[in-house]
Design brief:
This protein is about 30% helix and about 20% strand. It is α/β, with parallel strands linked by helices. Strands 1, 2, 3, 4, 8, 10 and 12 form a seven-stranded antiparallel β-sheet that branches. The chain is globular, with a radius of gyration of 22 Å. The protein starts with a helix and ends in a 7-residue tail after the last strand. Bound molecules: calcium ion (CA) (2 copies). The site of one calcium ion has 9 residues, from loops. One calcium ion binds next to loops.
Length: about 500
């Protein structure tokens, strides 16, 4: 059988969405010693992804080919329930960044030339544009004592104003004691406007090199980095050049986190929708803007097993048109649902044709749905993006069955690494790239969900979801395009 697999591999090219030759395998039973037996028979290495899901990552030295054929060959191991590629998942980057890449590259080249001329020191100009702005993995700071006073940038947060966040802060505990897991590129856990709202694993003694709470992770204080497997899920942010040329991370997870839960009345910066929430930082997407499905599953399991009530997923992947291929990720989200977790998913920035004025494709019907947004699970709540004029964002996906609500997602001001705030990623004079995306709309809803949940911690995920729907405000631009026919609003919250 191994031989026939090998022959198949030679005749088929590896799909571009597959990470080398990494596969996710769901086994029927994982009796002690089964790994050795599997490897003896099939080769490669096995790494545990989810004990509860009986899921392993199989890295094979064979360049395995078409998954369909692999599946047809399933009889090669009766213990295998399902085998899928470890697909790449990506942050939903600001669409204008993608659109303007060519222009930006040109502008950056001119800028670099200028710098070189002025400084006559090509090395320093080179390193300025080429190096990462902040060193990776700073020590995790403790909460700090902060001043009291209004937040100077709140008046620029149109999204907060539009959904009457201030009203909700007065009427509710603002997400107190609710843990929101940010599964993303990491979080600047030391950011002045986030440091006091980071989740702290109180059962873990920081820095003693032991897994005190026996959850499988040593010194996991604010979360975990599943991309590189360490306890510092820092939001490593690439240089401007790398962001432009390679689509890298401009501080995505930190921006998402600020929308959810930046501190209120600390006399600095902005405010999140749930300013008393606890943010659990779960990094599985790297500074290059993508991560593996195996690592996403680990992050989802961690969130559900360590007290998160809400998971924010401002990322996704495109299916090849076969839903079944994403079944193992779907099961992880379902597993979290059984533990009471609400899963907030970005609808995706998929609209293909900006020139034609197309405004998103319907992910209900599209042959290439975005996952996890399109999973039909009770605990998945999918979000489209609107602008400050209540228009559906030109890039935003919608779906009158699969997308629940619209929320602010164009030119959003929030936190970025290094105690900074941005509503604009790149400003090169004539070329302006703002923080846009269903990536930004989703954490508005995650924060709103935390705020609602904190009014009654006994609510079930489905009660919170219903409340979000009931409170939404009818909005013409999304009428018939999202299930609620409206946009996020907390105005009616009591
Ligand atoms: Ca631990
Ligand atoms: Ca603040």
């Amino acid at each position: 059988m191994i031989k026939s697999l090998f022959v198949l591999a030679l005749t088929l090219s590896t799909s571009s969405v597959v990470f080398g030759s990494e596969y996710l395998i769901k086994f029927q039973s994982v009796e002690p010693g089964f790994e050795n037996a599997f490897i003896a028979r099939n080769g490669g290495t096995l790494e545990l992804v989810s004990r509860e899901g009986s899921v392993y990552k199989w890295t094979t030295s064979k360049s395995a080919g078409s998954l369909k054929l692999l599946r047809a060959e399933k009889s090669w191991n009766k213990n295998v329930v399902r085998i899928e590629p470890n697909k790449k998942l990506k942050i939903f980057l600001s669409p204008s960044l993608e659109e303007k890449r060519a222009e930006l590259t040109e502008a950056l080249a001119i800028l670099k030339k200028k710098e070189k001329k002025e400084e006559k020191d090509s090395d320093s100009a080179e390193s300025k544009a080429g190096s990462t702005p902040y060193p990776d993995n700073p020590e995790i700071k403790n909460p700090t004592k902060q001043e009291t006073g209004s937040d100077p940038l709140l008046s620029n947060q149109w999204g907060m104003l539009a959904v009457d966040a201030a009203g909700a802060w007065k009427k509710t505990p603002g997400g107190k004691d609710i843990v929101v897991a940010v599964t993303d590129t990491g979080v600047d856990y030391n950011h002045q406007d986030l440091v006091n709202n980071m989740w702290r694993n109180t059962k873990e003694i920081p820095g003693d090199g032991k897994d005190n709470d026996n959850n499988g992770y040593v010194d996991d204080v604010v979360g975990w980095d599943f991309a590189v497997d360490d306890n510092k899920p820092y939001d490593l942010t690439l240089s401007l050049m790398d962001i432009i040329l390679q689509g890298g991370n401009p501080g995505h997870g930190t921006h998402v986190s600020g929308c959810i839960g930046a501190s209120l009345n600390n006399k600095m910066g902005i405010v999140g929708l749930a300013p008393n929430v606890k943010i659990m930082a779960l990094r599985f997407i790297t500074e290059k803007g993508q991560g593996g499905t195996a690592e996403a599953i680990k992050a989802i399991d961690y969130a559900a097993n360590n007290g998160a009530k809400i998971i924010n997923a401002s990322w996704g992947g495109e299916s090849d048109g076969e839903q079944e291929e994403d079944q193992i990720l779907k099961e992880a989200i379902e597993r979290a649902g059984k533990k009471g977790v609400l899963f907030l998913a970005a609808a995706g920035n998929g609209r293909a044709n900006a020139q034609g004025g197309a405004a998103g494709f319907d992910i209900d019907n599209d042959p290439k749905p975005v996952y996890p947004a399109a999973y039909q699970l009770e605990n998945v709540f999918t979000v489209a993006a609107i602008d400050s004029e209540n228009n559906l964002a030109t890039f935003s996906n919608w779906g009158n069955k699969s997308v629940k609500i619209a929320a602010p997602g164009v030119k959003i001001l929030s936190t970025v690494p290094g105690d900074k705030y941005q509503d604009t990623i790149i400003n090169l004079g004539s070329i302006n790239v703002t923080w846009d995306g269903t990536s930004m709309a989703t954490p508005h809803v995650a924060g709103a969900a935390a705020t609602i949940w904190s009014t009654d911690p006994n609510m079930l995920a489905r009660d919170v979801a219903k409340k979000l729907m009931d409170l939404s405000t009818a909005t013409d631009a999304v009428n018939g395009k999202v299930v609620s026919n409206g946009r996020l609003d907390l105005h009616g919250l009591k």
